[in-house]
Amino acid sequence: LAALERQVFDFLGYQWAPILANFLHIIIVILGLFGTIQYRPRYIVVYAIWTAVWVTWNIFIICFYLEVGGLSKDSELLTFNISRHQSWWSENGPGCVRKEASMSGIKGLDGHSYISVIGCALEYRYIEVMHSSFQILIALVGFVYACYVVSVFTEEEDSFDFIGGFDPFPLYHVNEKPTNLLFKQTYLWISPAGFSGMDGMTK
């Protein structure tokens, strides 16, 4: 859900690199959930490996918006130099007021407008940093959970008996009957004629 929310706002801001990264992340998350439900440890391992890549990507996004290491938040790196769009939050953040002023008096800029944003309660780069930090936190929790699930599946596979399943007794085990059950009572059926003969003898 957090990835979908982020994807929506990246679409609104035409941030093509984050859009592709978010899309791939959603696919891998679905793959990991499928592996958990269907007992496929390999899919979960793929998700665990991807979480490391996802954490690295979000650290890069944080460095990008905080302008660490020569990066600039005003560059067109995240849009692949296709457009000059910025984060959607740059104009629509909490408390932001967007104003447009015409530039008809300047040569070559007739018909264009200058957009200014004022009154923002929180600068947009910090909103993006919080988004990435939250994604890192979720990825770390997902990595720990993925490792736990893989270990549980591995233990179940090691304890599984391919002949008798999880039953500690073999499939073709023959149960020995107690010796007291080998001695059965024998019933003597006496015909009515036999009863009549016995009556005559007693008389």
From TrEMBL:
GO biological process: regulation of sodium ion transport
Hydrolase in keyword set: no
Protein's membrane topology: Multi-pass membrane protein
Signal peptide start-end: none
UniProt entry tagged with the keyword Metal-binding: no
Segments passing through the bilayer: 16-37, 44-68, 134-153
Any one annotated GO CC term: plasma membrane
Localization (cell): Cell membrane
InterPro entries to which the protein is assigned, alphabetical: Na/K-Atpase_Interacting (IPR008516)
Keyword terms, alphabetized: Cell membrane, Membrane, Transmembrane, Transmembrane helix
One Pfam family from the record: NKAIN
Family: Belongs to the NKAIN family.
This protein's name: Sodium/potassium-transporting ATPase subunit beta-1-interacting protein
Species per Swiss-Prot/TrEMBL record: Nestor notabilis (Kea)
Species classification: Eukaryota, Metazoa, Chordata, Craniata, Vertebrata
